[in-house]
Amino acid sequence: MNSISKKIVLLALALMLAGCRTFNTFSTESRPLDHQVIVDGKTDDWRGDLFVAEGERIELGFLNDRENLYICLLTTDNFVRAQILTQGLTVWFDPKGKTDKVFGIKFPVGLPPGERKMPLGDNPEGPDLENLPKVPMTEMEIIRSEKEPVQKLNVAEAQGIEVKVVPSSGLIVYELKIPLVKTEQHPIAVGVEPGKTVGIGFETPKFDLSQMPRRRGGIPGGGRPPMGGGAGQEGMGGYGRGFQLPEGLKMWAIVSLAQGQSGRQPELLFLSH
Q1: What's the number of domains the chain is made of?
Q2: Percentage of residues of the chain with pLDDT beyond 90
Q3: Where are the alpha helices (DSSP H) in 50-132?
């Protein structure tokens, strides 16, 4: 490979990496559990325990006692809601308190690949979730590594794990309860004791552009956007000038677990983006 070819390859690689969103990473605290939390996809149990994740369009909350970790995520953003429902949401855990994908729980699993279309409709403010196909909520996937096959579990049969996603008008709420320490009764657990630090990641795949539906006013005949046009130009999927298809959710929270005693309000420290 000559020097010119190498420069072209390096430039292409740089442009590709520049277009990929890196994980937003921040640290926070899990508050001690001093009241009952019912995993029902409602926020009644989380009043005063949620904070806005810096650089994201979501709210998060973490609670724990000596046995279980509770997680709540909610968003009113139409695109994030559509990503969770159509593409699925994976919550990753790193018991060493870093950002390695040691194992993950995917729920909801999303729509079948052939149905994962961005439900844009004719609403200029975001996806049309009213006409979204019914998303299955009975199965979860346990992801341990790229080398191991995904383990599929019925949500009702997962030992010690409770998870619920409830989409409603203008809002989606995700709740998860998972054991902290692995036991014979709870083979799937975070793998960390109270008072320690755990990395918790949240990830949704980005939308597949090949599945983008076309709107009225788009380029007839499925033609390419004009030279220089991209996701932000008229013609990308026919959606309209100024529209940018968002990247998938990519976020890590480095969470200091409580030891079961009353504590202060959670603090959020932005590390990197």
Answers
A1: 1
A2: 51
A3: 78-87
Residue 227 CB neighbours (<10 A): 5
Q: Count the Cβ atoms, other than its own, within 10 Å of residue 101.
A: 17
Note the residue count of the chain.
273
Which tokens hold the place of 134?
A: 């019914």
Which CATH number belongs to the domain containing residue 180 in this structure?
2.60.40
pTM of this prediction? 0.76
> Is the residue at 266 inside a domain?
yes
Please state, in angstroms and rounded to a whole number, the distance separating the CA atoms of residues 122 and 237: 12
Check if the beta carbon of residue 246 is closer than 8 Å to that of residue 120: no
* Single-letter amino acid, residue 104: G
Find the mean pLDDT for residues 73-88.
Answer: 91
In this structure, what DSSP letter does residue 211 have? G
Say if CB 121 and CB 212 are below 8 A apart: no
